[in-house]
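Q: Protein A?
A:
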Amino acid sequence: MTFGSTDARRVAITLMAGLAFTAVAAMPSHAAAKIQHLVSPGGIEAWFVQDSTVPLIAVEYAFSGGSSQDPAGKPGVGNMVADLLDEGSGDLDSNAFHERLDRRAIELGFSATRDYFRGSLRMLKDNRDEAFDLLRLSLTSPHFDDVDVERIRAQLMSGLRREISSPNALAGRKFLQAAYGDDHPYGRPASGTLQSVPTIDVDDLKDYTRRVLAKNTLRIAVVGDVDAGTLGQLLDRTFGDLPAKAELTPVADIEAAKPPQRFFIPLDVPQTVVMFGGPGIKRSDPDFMAAYVVNHILGSGGSSRLYREVREKRGLAYSISESLLWMNHSAMFIGSTGTRGDRAAETVDAINKEVRRMAEDGPTRQELDETKSYLKGSQMLALDTSSKLASALLQYQLDKLGIDYIEKRNAVVEAVTMDQVKHAARRLWGQGLQTVIVGRAPEAVAQPASAVPAVAVPAAAGVPAVAVPSAK
């Protein structure tokens, strides 16, 4: 999984397709028995579940790279490529391309996460040939026409300008910058900046596509009403003409900056946003599942400790959540909430106390048993559609888990012990928190909003921030 949202992709979909894509696919225990490791005649590999319950096909795929492959000084290139691949390709301009998507109720989308350039494709069975052909065109012959590039650039710039007044966006950017610095790709904004996006040119887009979209890093998951032989031919036609090998810039392993740290970003908004976190535990770490379980107890869902302490007992926030984030070269835990400006300090104090208590004492036996039971049962619901199952199968590949992981996963959860979760809690939260607070300055909270001057964003940094002494 990764941090940070990407801009919504344009999706062509009709009511019929929308209803079809919510149909229930095989449940996990049944689907696991049918997962095939398919190799096409041309050598394209995929994890595949053949399911004729409903006449649709869901495809998820990813190339290594993502925003970590943006050129130095030009964050946002991968994100811009993702927005432009469906804006005309082959012999189709942007309007003709989207008209074909609309006519056949085909969903096609792309996104750039920190480590991967990802894509998805959804179609009814009868439209599979056209759907895969449109995907082939978008990956192998995108136009990047000037008129489309400038239209997408204008949309991205508009979104970036809105982020200047978005406390959540400002908090997220500052959090990653503080954790990883400006010299590592993880510390740079994946969607770009007001300074970088205007400098991205067509050559940057073409070079990124050439370097990143290659067969040797491609991972694919397919769930739906298609047989293995037909799917193999579709995969060869769709991905076979891509370059054999990616040309990726190496990314160094890095640990997030050790807490405690605290940053304040003044912004004239009614509600103060608090983002908190610190170094996490990587997916390949032996302590990962124990960390996943104890993290659910602390910060996931409406029954978590943070929710009870911050929302239910003190009424400080409407919601609060915290989750693990793992990437190829680092890991974090990260949480957020929103509160009244005059109660921000109280909210931060309550979060710190609960995190410290979990680090020192760990969970109770009842909390551990109930959480393990919940996580085992919720797996069934988490994979109840073709799209969800395809997404999970792709993620398991990216996380380097076995093709039988769905079958093994509940046993892995059940095997987690109290000693293991206490150890993981100390690793995660024993050092305290990195905290970013975005809102009105404490001395201005009692004033009407109009009395608080707007804060200009420095052009070089893109985020106004002042470090304040960390609370021990």
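Q: Protein B?
A:
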Amino acid sequence: MRRDDLVTFQVDGTHGSAVAGLTRCVSQSRVNTPKPVWNPDETQKIDFFAQWQDVPDNQVYDNGFKIQWEAFIRHVCEGAPFRWDLLAGARGVQLAELGMKSWAERRWIDVPDLEA
């Protein structure tokens, strides 16, 4: 596991793995994954972190919280449309609560539709 950032998301697939943080993403293809032989009598000589490759940045993303606050302020001050309503907020709370329930019960849980 890599823990290079405040939060990281690791995705493992049949062709490799990727680890994304807040500002950086690295990947390792299956063919480039080392196959070490573990010997408890010797120090590991493979630098496992060196095997990962940076995913190139091809777009700069602004701070998501800032973008949403700017949209909300425009909505309040200028009457601009606002993408998220109370139902969208309720869906976010529902998803967080179901995520915690799924974790506690160690099972998948379907997310039911919320109606206004």
